[in-house]
Amino acid sequence: MAQIYRITEQYSGESFECEAGQSVLKAMEQRGMKCVPVGCRGGGCGYCKIQVLAGEFECGKMSKVHVPPEALEKKEVLACRVYPLTDLTIECRPSQSGLASKQTKTTALR
Q1: Which long-range contacts (CB under 8 A, 24 or more apart) does 1-9 make?
Q2: Is pLDDT of 19 > 90?
Q3: Residue 100 lies in a domain
Q4: What is the pTM of this model?
């Protein structure tokens, strides 16, 4: 029988189960949660960035552009490449790269 971990999103208080060896993003999607935007699901686009506030986890390969070493030290990771080793408390934070594509430029009037 697979180990099951409880993942809790800090601000909404919503929680869901995640099996050992399953990514946090996949568990979110299976439970219909839409906490973060979803892109490539392969650790390359940076859309599904979360911060782990409590608990232990391991990471798969992630883009160093979106998760540089200093972000990893702060436990800012991609949900598609995070696998819980204990129950986790996370904060969902939509990535700036995902938002940037939707922003428009404005110019000052002279």
Answers
A1: 5/55, 5/84, 5/85, 5/86, 5/87, 5/88, 6/87, 6/88, 7/84, 7/87, 7/88, 7/89, 7/90, 8/87, 8/88, 8/89, 8/90, 9/33, 9/35, 9/89, 9/90, 9/91, 9/92
A2: yes
A3: no
A4: 0.81
